[in-house]
Design brief:
The protein is elongated. The chain is mainly alpha-helical. It has helices spanning 14-31, 41-69. The relative contact order is 0.06. The model has no long low-confidence stretch (mean pLDDT 82).
Length: 74
């Protein structure tokens, strides 16, 4: 871990954070342009996974609501 990231050494997320910054730096070096999260496959995968989790949660909530509604008087 280099000097400008020493503050992350004791943080449990430190190594992952440093690795992510290194990955972004390599991506920028490879493209020679500005960083665009829309073009970053890792970011897009994370967003897709988050959207899927939210969709599953919504389906579970709807299912739970439907099962409760069956037992409520009309």
């Amino acid at each position: 871990m280099d000097r400008d990231r020493e503050d992350l050494a004791d943080d449990e997320r430190g190594p992952a954070e440093v690795a992510e910054w290194e990955r972004i730096a390599q991506l920028l070096a490879a493209t020679g342009g500005t960083y665009d999260p829309k073009a970053d496959a890792v970011v897009q995968d994370e967003l897709a996974a988050e959207a899927e989790r939210e969709r599953e949660k919504q389906m579970e909530d709807d299912k739970r609501r439907h099962s409760v509604d069956r037992y409520l008087p009309a």
